[in-house]
Specification:
InterPro entries: Aldolase_TIM, LAM_C_dom, Lys_aminomutase/Glu_NH3_mut, Lysine_aminomutase, rSAM, rSAM_sf
Strand content: 15-25%
Order of helices and strands: HHHHHHHEEHEHEHHEHEHEHEEEEE
Distance between the termini: 61 Å
Protein name: L-lysine 2,3-aminomutase
Structural class: alpha/beta
CATH class of the largest domain: Alpha Beta
Mean pLDDT: 94
Radius of gyration: 22 Å
CATH topology of the largest domain: TIM Barrel
CATH architecture of the largest domain: Alpha-Beta Barrel
Helix content: 25-40%
Organism: Cylindrospermopsis raciborskii CENA303
Cofactor: pyridoxal 5'-phosphate; [4Fe-4S] cluster
GO molecular function, one term: 4 iron, 4 sulfur cluster binding
């Protein structure tokens, strides 16, 4: 939970007087995002690596943090798991082997601007290029915050025409940027046009707004999402993100009938321990959010300092499995570099299968035999 002291300090930094009602206004939060080095110097004890990161970010990838999320950062600890996600560091200048500008190969699978058609029956629709705050490991840092994506109203007709022509598409994931930064009216219009296409059965939105800007989750927004039967994929990476404000936002969504699943990115120093992941996933379940995917961090240029090894991820999933409820264990995936799509990764559990006999290994490393039925 944010505190009045933190809120008042941040308001002074952005040149405002603290007013509780203003603080709760999502548009006020967006207008007063912290974006400049000098603002963060007043808020945090920045390390030389962080200060250099800010200087570099001007030409590389923008910095923006909502006052709300800024109030959750540890001002003294540069290794704060929330701070690592949004404060740039000089390590972002390092280009490692395997780093890619477009790691998921989206640009090569985009038949019209704003549509990525990788899988046979579903597409990604990129609605806008702005977010409430910018994750330093962002897969789309080549697009997000760069101002190169034309407004959705100028691209929408072509996208809708494409979807109408491709009757094999039954599932649309709206992402960006963050679609929940659109006004209720614009979002309602977009969802209405998608729902007007008879073969589209399933509409999802991917958003980190509930984490960075829970004030945006209003009864009016929930009404729009419910009207169009939207599923919401949220993004949380650490237990400390699950504040009272987030709990209230999730309650609004869940009580409004919006199914909630979480996509978490495995990040070095943020959540790469059994306890950190267990705490996060248990906390999500308390908020009626199902842990859905645990992503191996995409090899975006300049993110090697935030990436773990795949073996680390496998070890963590192994430690979680059967040591907590299955609802709390997401699918560990790699988004195959170059456009191969999501590939589930798991420790080997089927250790032999021949002549109708399967040998399986459980969480205790014990082996068991399963026999196929006899024809």
């Amino acid at each position: 939970m944010t505190t009045a002291i933190h809120s008042e300090k941040i308001c002074r930094i952005v040149g405002e007087t603290y007013e509780p009602e203003s603080w709760k206004d999502w548009q006020w939060q967006m207008r007063h995002r912290l974006t400049k080095l000098e603002q963060f110097q007043k808020l945090l004890c920045l390390t030389p690596e962080e200060e250099q990161g800010f200087i570099m970010a001007v030409d590389k990838f923008a910095v923006a943090v909502t006052p709300y999320f800024a109030s959750l950062l540890d001002p003294e600890d540069a290794n704060c798991p929330l701070r690592l996600q949004v404060i740039p560091r000089k390590e972002e200048l390092i280009v490692s082997s395997g780093d890619m500008i477009d790691p998921c190969g989206e640009d090569n699978q985009s038949p019209v601007p704003g549509i990525v058609h990788r899988y046979p029956d579903r597409v990604l629709l990129l609605a806008l290029d702005s977010c409430a705050a910018y994750c330093r490991y962002c897969t789309r840092s080549r697009l997000v915050s760069q101002g190169e994506m034309t407004p959705i109203k100028h691209r929408l007709d072509a996208m809708i025409n494409y979807l109408e022509d491709h009757t094999e598409v039954r599932d649309v994931l709206i992402s960006g940027g963050d679609p929940l930064l659109m006004s209720n009216q614009v979002l309602d219009s977009l969802l209405g046009r998608l729902r007007g296409i008879s073969h589209i059965e399933f509409v999802r939105i991917g958003s980190r707004v509930p984490c960075f800007l829970p004030q945006r989750i209003t009864p009016e927004l929930v009404k729009v999402l419910r009207k169009h039967r939207v599923w919401l994929s949220v993004h949380f990476c650490h237990l400390r993100e699950l504040t009272l404000e987030v709990a209230q936002a999730c309650d609004l969504l869940a009580d409004g009938g919006i199914p909630l699943g979480c996509q978490t990115v495995l990040l070095k120093g943020v959540n790469d321990s059994e306890q950190a992941l267990k705490n996060l996933f248990h906390g999500l379940l308390k908020l009626r959010v199902r842990p859905y995917y645990l992503y191996q961090c995409d090899p975006v240029v300049g993110t090697s300092h935030l990436r773990t090894s795949i073996q680390s991820g496998l070890d963590l999933i192994s430690k979680l499995r059967s040591h907590t409820t299955g609802y709390a264990i997401p699918t560990y995936v790699i988004d195959a570099p170059g456009g191969g799509g999501k590939v589930p990764i798991q420790p080997e559990t089927l250790i032999g299968y021949e002549n109708g006999k399967a040998i399986v290994k459980n969480w205790q490393d014990r082996s068991f035999t399963y026999l196929d039925p006899v024809d």
